[in-house]
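Example S7 (structure tokens).
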């Protein structure tokens, strides 16, 4: 078991660092409302398949299955999280597997309508991120969607300090001082450069700056709505 897997197993057992929830992500719910307004149920229906890269306790797959009847597969490094997800997904058309997202996605070509990468792939290095992008493109059907949420670098004092004090061997990457793991943080320009060749970028939603009296608060995030050409 590597350090990252051990951290998440402990976190799902104790919630020592993060407030973990079984409620679906508000950002994902906002995305589905936007998708439904624009396309009705074209992409949100029982014939549509979803893959969640970093499914955790299954909360987002459960939401998509219960709200829209979607079928899906969830992958996560933590066997503790996957056990919890299976317990809460009985009678739903969802399956789970303990698996690293650095490995190829075990899905057929163009079999998937929606891929979720929510606060997951920032732990990958450049070559691994590129390999994952290629896998996402392979499994997505033409016109399929990637909902991507990650850390945002711009105007985040926490990121500025982490990059200064704990730099990794790649621009905009650091070694987390508490977790001891590699993390990459995106700029808006980097997101555009990385995705725009293969995806139409429909929407980029940035969280607030999270400053209190000029001091850093919560980390900034960005959610991106991406449709495969």
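Recovered sequence:
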């Amino acid at each position: 078991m590597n350090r990252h897997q051990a951290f998440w197993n402990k976190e799902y057992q104790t919630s020592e660092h993060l407030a973990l929830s079984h409620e679906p992500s508000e950002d994902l719910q906002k995305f589905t409302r936007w998708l439904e307004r624009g396309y009705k149920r074209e992409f949100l229906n029982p014939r549509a398949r979803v893959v969640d890269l970093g499914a955790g306790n299954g909360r987002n797959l459960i939401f998509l299955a219960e709200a829209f009847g979607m079928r899906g597969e969830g992958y996560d490094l933590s066997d503790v999280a996957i056990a919890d997800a299976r317990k809460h997904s009985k009678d739903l058309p969802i399956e789970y597997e303990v698996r690293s997202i650095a490995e190829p996605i075990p899905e057929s070509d163009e079999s998937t309508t929606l891929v979720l990468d929510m606060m997951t792939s920032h732990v990958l290095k450049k070559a691994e991120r590129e390999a994952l992008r290629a896998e996402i493109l392979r499994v997505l059907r033409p016109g399929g969607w990637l909902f991507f949420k990650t850390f945002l670098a711009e105007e985040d004092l926490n990121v500025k300090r982490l990059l200064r004090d704990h730099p990794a061997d790649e621009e905009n990457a650091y070694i987390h001082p508490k977790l001891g793991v590699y993390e990459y943080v995106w700029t808006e320009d980097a997101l555009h450069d990385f995705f725009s060749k293969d995806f139409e970028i429909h929407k980029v939603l940035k969280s607030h700056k999270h400053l209190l009296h000029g001091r850093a608060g919560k980390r900034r995030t960005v959610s991106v709505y991406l449709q495969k050409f």
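Notes on this example. The longest strand covers residues 140-151.
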